[in-house]
Amino acid sequence: MLGCMAEHEHAFPWFPLAATDATSDRATITLGLRSADLHFREQVVPGIGRVWFLRQLCWPVAALALRPDLPPDGRPGRTAADIASGIEALACKLEFIEGEGSDSKRIIGVRAFTRDQGQNGASIWDYDSLRTRAHYVQNTYRQAAVRALGEHAGLGLASGSRYSSMVLTGPGEQLAQAYLSQSAGKPPLKNWLLRWIAGADGYRGPSVRLALSPEHASDDEREIIWKRLAGVDTPGSEKRRALAKIFLQEETFPDIEKSLLPALREQGKKEALQASGIALARSFGALFTAALRVLAHLTRLIEQVGAVLPADAAARKEIRRAMEQLSESAQKYHKQHEKLPAVGHADALRFALGVQARSGGELLSWLVSLDGQILQLSDGELHPGSLFRVLDNEEDATDQDGTTDLDARTDDGRTFRLVNLFSLVKDCGMDAVP
């Protein structure tokens, strides 16, 4: 995840340089596979980006609806992006400070909220403060939802590719109305928010908290999103609907290989091909994770010795075993790709072939050359790179100060948004697909 993130889905693990409040340089490890990763995420679960609960969609559409109602007085912080950040920051802070669900995994900004409380932060509830990174987070839920909002690649709630220029579609207008028409005491939430953005402190009672909350989408919101998720006549919706049928029958996220894929194949030929595409994506995920594991072992070694010859590093027991697993993963992906070339990705195949063509120190040198940030090759030795740190064996999951993502937190390997879709289906709370 990038330190200064653009409005697109970042799909690869980031590693903060130190456990501080800083949000500066972060190392993004792609190994040339960013396009492949995005390709497989869209193949497996199209159109939802990194969204995994309903209010991630409600907050940004509400901000787009509110922006035209603000006076054109040129005051800073009144863009749709600013408004969306303010709304979700207030929603998360109210839930964290005043709600019973303060341990909710949907709350981000905990570090800033806690720090502010320690500085008599009970007074920091104004819009102009909460919309900023200093009092919330750098990576917001709005940024994570842009892909899902789109009319062509997303759920059709807005037209346009960049959030700042998006215009709500009919379904987007309906969702914004459903959210903003909730009661916030005497006035509807829309009026309360407009006054708050204009500078009023306002009453922050239970009705306001519930209306804003990440935990309490209304029935109207749930119905609108459910139809966009699984009730639209598009290829993406058909894929999501086939998966939703299975998820509706499960209390917890099912085992993908043992339960989900067999159930998907039983639905029909189209769904059987869909299952094969998911299996291929999982094979790619295992390949990428195996490459990360090699680099993780290598960073731990270099932390100890400072610099090492590639051949000497490759002779280490733990690194040798990790490279063997990487080679096995490359062979598996290559074999599965050949069966479904139209579903695979050229960069993934190229990477798998590159792994298969190398071994020992040559393989380590090649992997390092694909990154160049965490590690680097200089004068024939492997050295710390400009953004060096010791990596974990697996993909690093975001904490409560960045946009959380269930797909990054699952212990069941890369699910390519399957776990996100499962969470969305459960948040909709419906009994059958539309």
Q: What's the short story on this structure?
A:
This protein has 434 residues and is mainly α. The chain is built from 19 helices and six strands. Helices cover 53% and strands 4% of the residues.
Describe the structure.
By secondary structure, the chain is mainly alpha-helical. The protein folds into two domains: 27-47 and 234-433, no CATH class; 54-213, no CATH class. It has helices at 34-44, 55-66, 80-97, 110-118, 127-130, 141-149, 170-180, 189-198, 206-212, 219-230, 235-247, 256-265, 269-305, 310-314, 317-339, 346-356, 360-371, 406-409, 418-428; strands spanning 14-16, 26-28, 158-159, 167-168, 375-378, 381-384. Strands 1-2 form a two-stranded antiparallel sheet. It has a two-stranded antiparallel ribbon with strand order 3-4. A two-stranded antiparallel ribbon has the order 5-6.
Q: What attributes does this structure have?
A:
two-stranded antiparallel sheet; 6 strands; globular; 2 domains; single chain; 434 residues; disordered N terminus; mainly alpha; two-stranded antiparallel ribbon
* Fraction of residues in H or I helices: 40-55%
What's the mean pLDDT score? Answer: 88
Q: Helix count?
A: 19
Ends apart, CA distance between termini: 35 Å
SSE topology string: EEHHHHHHEEHHHHHHHHHHHEEHH
**Over all CA atoms, what is the radius of gyration?**
23 Å
Largest beta sheet: what is the strand line-up? 1-2
Largest sheet, in brief, is: 2 strands, antiparallel
Shape: globular
Helix/strand/pairing category: mainly alpha
Share of residues in strands: under 5%
Count of DSSP strands: 6
Low-confidence stretches: 1-27, 395-401
How many structural domains can be distinguished in the coordinates? 2
